[in-house]
Amino acid sequence: MSPTPLRLVVAVNPSASFGRRSDVGSSVVSALTRAGHDVTVLLEQSFDDLVVAARTQLATSPDALIVVGGDGMMNLGTNLVAGTDVPLGLVPTGTGNDMARALGIPHDDSDAATRLLVSQLDRPARVIDAGRVSRGTDTTWFACMLSAGFDAVVNERANRMRRPRGRSRYNLALYLELIRLQHLSYRLEIDGESMQLDGTLVSVGNGRSFGGGITVLPDAELDDGLLDVLVVERLGRLQFLRLFGQVARGTHLADPRVHVHRARRVTIHSDDVAAYADGERIGSLPVTVEVVPGALRVLAPAAV
């Protein structure tokens, strides 16, 4: 039992709470209760209802918000607590889990992730940066990666598809978009410097990967006060497939068509693509992304 009982709010992904992973949320709550903590669990029918319920609980100043789910739930939690003193915990149950990977949280073993979470509650929260996205008058946050290129186009198609379910839907969407690979026209402003190009991929990372561990920004750090901006020039289909082979080997940054800029602020203009942050749709471009150092406190191991 914890020497200092905490008041915790646990928000469970609506899909997980009523689907095949329904046991994970209850297992997390049971583990936290056995450790002596006061737990309020939020099980809602939709993400909108979950946000409303979580905001109500956060107004009572709990000791931490814990989310159970994938990158979408991490994104939800980030948008609820970024810029506050409330720490955010994560037990991943999704198919991508890129932020869990970045934080050193077991991404394919919910029991191990739960044990780690319980142990972290007795330790100081880790302080990391977050990305803040402005689109018109709207502002949102992300923890890991914003995408406005091929991977965003894949997400657009996958979100329109009804079948198949899970990871297979994303993989099918990726295959279909690869067949009709688009070349996108961009205007970028990176810390005040402008550039125009036809490209295939533009991503802005606080973390290192997207798409379930595709490590496109291996040198990105969560707490360095900078964003890593990946720009991939126009590629043909075979060139693009070869690039993913280079990514798997960790050699893609040596390709002359791949560029990484480190910046505090970037604006992305294009008429051809929407932006996604941590897998969640932001909307059509342009968007401005800026890093906010130390905006997020997380229940995760210290960086190695």
In short:
The protein has 304 residues and is an alpha+beta fold. It has helices spanning 14-17, 22-34, 47-58, 71-81, 98-103, 110-120, 150-160, 167-179, 237-249, and strands spanning 7-12, 38-42, 64-69, 88-92, 126-135, 138-142, 145-147, 184-190, 193-205, 209-210, 214-215, 227-233, 258-263, 265-269, 274-277, 280-284, 287-298.
Overview of this structure, please?
The chain is an alpha+beta fold and 304 residues long. The protein has helices at 14-17, 22-34, 47-58, 71-81, 98-103, 110-120, 150-160, 167-179, 237-249; strands at residues 7-12, 38-42, 64-69, 88-92, 126-135, 138-142, 145-147, 184-190, 193-205, 209-210, 214-215, 227-233, 258-263, 265-269, 274-277, 280-284, 287-298. Strands 5, 6, 7, 8, 9, 12, 13, 14, 15, 16 and 17 form an eleven-stranded antiparallel beta sheet that branches. Helix 2 (22-34) runs parallel beside helix 6 and helix 7 crosses helix 8 (167-179). The longest helix has 13 residues, at 22-34. It is globular. It starts with 6 loop residues before the first strand and ends in a 6-residue tail after the last strand. The model has no long low-confidence stretch (mean pLDDT 90).
